[in-house]
Structure formats: C-alpha cells, structure tokens
Amino acid sequence: MAENIFTSEDLKKMQSWDFEHKIHVTQIRILEFYGRMDGKVTVSFSGGKDSTVLLDLARRCFPDTKALYVDTGLEFPEVRNFALSLPNVIKLTPEMRFDEVIKEYGWCYPSKDVANAVFYARQGKRWAINYFKGLNTDGSRSWYKEAYYKKWAFLLDSDFKISAKCCDVMKENPLKFYAQETKTKPITGTLTSESSRRKQAWLKTGCNSFKKGKEISKPLSFWSEQDILRYLRDFKIPYASVYGDIVEDKKGKLKTTGERRTGCTFCPIGCHLDKVNTFQRLEYSRPARHRYIINDLGLGDLLDFVGVDYGRKYP
Ligand code: SF4
Question: Cys-Cys link to 282, which of 149, 156, 288, 290 (CB 3.0-4.6 A)?
C-alpha cells in the first residue's frame, strides 16, 4: 500500500487558507497538471455545484478545456439541462440502465465502502469478513472498522443484493473508457471534506497524482462547501436552478434555498443519516420518481429492512 506523503495537519492547514489563496493554489494545480499532461486533460463535469466551480476555474486558465458529462438518467432534469447547455460538453452514456444495474448488482448502500465489503464478504473474501468483525485485513483490531462496518454485519445474511458496482457502471466506467480511447487525463471536483475515502486518497498523493496510468487532478480537494457557494455567488457563475438561490443564514453561513446536494436522485447512499432524506423529499417533489424507485425498483423493501423512513408506501 502506498505511503502517505501528506498528513491530516497539512490538509487542515490548507483548508484554513483564505478564499483568495485557495483560488490561487487551485489554479496553480490545474496549470501544473495541464502542463505535465501536455494539455490532454478533461474536466469531469456532473452539472453539480462543485464541478461547476471547477469547470469555471479550469476554463479561466484554458478556455477550450473539454468537459465530460455522464448522462446516467439519474440526475435532476434541471442539472442535466444545465450541464448540456454549456459549450464544449461531451455527453457520455453508461453501458447499462440503472434498473439493469440494480437487478444485476444490487443497491449501493449504506455507503460505497460498506456495500463493497458486503459484496466481497459474501464471496468469502477474508479482508471483507474481517471488516464486519471490526478487524483490519490482517486481523488486528480497528476502531474504524468497529465503528463503521460492524453495525452493518446484519446485511450479510439478508436477501438483498448489495454492491458498490452502481457507481462503477453508471459513472466511472464511461469516464474511464473515454480517457482510454482519447488518452486524456481527468480533472475532478472532489472535496476531501465529503468523505474519509477522499481524504485518505488525498493524503497519499495530494491534489495532483502523476503515477503512471493513474494520473488525476483533484484541485478543489481542500475547499469547503462554503468556499464553493462563495465562489458561485461572488463571481456570479451560472449554476443549475435546482439549487435555488445562495443566501446567508442568521449566522452568516451560506446555504442554498433549493436542493443542497444534487447527484443521483435515486441514490440511497447515506439516506439513514439525513433528518429528511432524499426519498421523503422526492415523495412530494417528484411523486412518479418516488413510486418508481420505492415500489418498482424495490428500494422500499431494503429501507423497511434497515428501518429507514422513505415516505409513502404503495400497495
Ligand atoms: S451515486 Fe448512487 S445512484 Fe448514482 S451511480 Fe453512484 S451508487 Fe449509483
């Protein structure tokens, strides 16, 4: 396993930089990556707010930068329309439909890492079985596995198909295939504050990774959601209408008046953590979609099993 070249303290320090400095460093990372890749780069563009900021920053450096949008059919229509309305955006399509992926590989739930471990534990892989016992791959005790995996061990004996394949098939493979065909390298708008998996990856490589065959740039890694909202507001960058307006709350914190997160409207990842989850909102905002996922695709059965409310049940 690769050693870390940065520490959590390094990341914290970068996250505490002032806004202008963050913009400056992000653009330096983009320039550096573009130069090392001889300009053969693309921006992975979901139409969400993070990648909207990234695309703007990249095109301020290199106006002809191509953006890749994967048309999963799972995005909010407003996000899709916005993404495809921008110039020089290439639309990619997954090889399978979402319902086919669910049927074949099952749900990606409760998180990508746990779903992946469920999939491999059921195949008898020792490392994955260990995780659900609160152990590391080598059998030593791990507080992290204890806290994040052990409580989901009950999923192993359930009848539900569970795996992390959905993201691979629906989002990552189309981008990977494009990169292989065109010999281009991706610039992505991921933030380390969003998941420990992203933070761990950053600690190993920093924002730009130049490892042969795995070259990737993640120049927004040290940004916060507040930085993203501030950038969109201060520079008056157009963004998908589903977010609504960007306003300050009573404590001066920025927030959106519409959706906070966009991404896949059908995604159950993390829905047990939300006060009001995606599906409870979907019931009112897009009832036909709600019925389709809860009933027709059968997510309601899984959420019943786990004990997560999703709004209305259908006969
Ligand atoms: S975000 Fe969720 S629904 Fe979307 S591709 Fe990944 S696992 Fe599937």
Answer: 290
Cα 25 to middle of ligand 1, angstroms = 30
Mutate to test the pocket of ligand 1, among 96, 166, 266 (most ligand atoms within 8 A of CB): 166
Same domain flag for 213 and 93? yes
Distance 24 CA to ligand 1 centre (A): 32
Do 20 and 115 reside in the same domain of the chain?
no
Q: What is the pTM of this model?
A: 0.90
Helices 196-205 & 8-15 angle (0-180, nearest 10) = 100
Is residue 167 within 8 A of residue 112, CB to CB? The reply is: yes
Write out pLDDT tens, residues 256-292.
998 887 888 889 999 998 888 989 988 998 899 899 9
Pocket of ligand 1 from Cβ distances under 6 Å: 74, 108, 166-167, 170-171, 263-264, 266-267, 269
| Residue 132 included in any domain | yes
Residue 258, in any domain of the structure: no
Domain containing 295 equals 271-306
